[in-house]
Amino acid sequence: MKPNIHPEYRQVLFHDMAADAYFLVGSTIQTERTKTWSDGNTYPYVPLDVSSASHPIYTGKQKQISSEGRMANFGKKFGRFLATKGDAS
């Protein structure tokens, strides 16, 4: 490896604000913030809005939309345009 061209790889504390979960992971992200972790060491600190601890895809809490309800709503909204000429009043 060439010297002095690679970013510093170190342990970084990530905080998922939505789930209030902490992750201590190796990373090269740059941050000025630090936080003392439960092991007594101080690590660079990065707050996150979403991680695998809070994202609906990973937690299984994604919102399911009924396709029957969607079709019914579509029919209510555009049904008059879909009617054949013999059905129109």
UniProtKB/TrEMBL annotation:
UniProt key word Phosphoprotein = no
Q: Which family does it belong to?
A: Belongs to the bacterial ribosomal protein bL31 family. Type B subfamily.
Q: What gene codes for this chain?
A: rpmE2
- List the Pfam families hit by this protein, alphabetically: Ribosomal_L31
**Protein name according to UniProt:** Large ribosomal subunit protein bL31B
Q: Please indicate if the UniProt record lists Mitochondrion as a keyword.
A: no
Its GO CC terms are: ribosome
Which SUPFAM superfamilies does the UniProt entry name for this protein? L28p-like (SSF143800)
Q: Which organism is it from?
A: Alkalimonas cellulosilytica
Q: How does it assemble?
A: Part of the 50S ribosomal subunit.
List the keywords (alphabetical).
Answer: Ribonucleoprotein, Ribosomal protein
Instruction: List the NCBIfam families hit by this protein, alphabetically.
Output: L31, PRK01678.1
